[in-house]
Amino acid sequence: MTREEIFQYTQGKYGTKPEYLWKKYPQYAVLRHQQNRKWYAIIMDVKSENLGLEGNKIEDIMDIKLNPETVDILQSEKGFLPAYHMNNSNWISIRIDLVDNDQICNFIDASYELTGK
């Protein structure tokens, strides 16, 4: 799934558009609730070496919030990493080019629900 496809999905389902908050990181896009302003996802382009991966590639990742049990399970699955710059027990990084689109949408929905409280 591409970041553009994610943005189309979240705008269609939740009416949210990406927010670009940092000049230093112009590709970092935050998705947040309109009512409570809490983040439910952030999409970033990060050097693979900063993620503990080999190589010098730029990776598109998405951090989302899930329940701690799900985070624990997913960290051993292909396409998932400990959350980049977020709480590792409640957030997880998804390598969006390696995980199934339907799965990504389901995780976005779960994160939206968890952060809506």
TrEMBL record:
SUPFAM superfamilies, sorted: YjbR-like
Signal peptide feature range: none
InterPro entries the UniProt entry points to: YjbR, YjbR-like_sf, YjbR/MT2646/Rv2570-like
Official protein name in the record: MmcQ/YjbR family DNA-binding protein
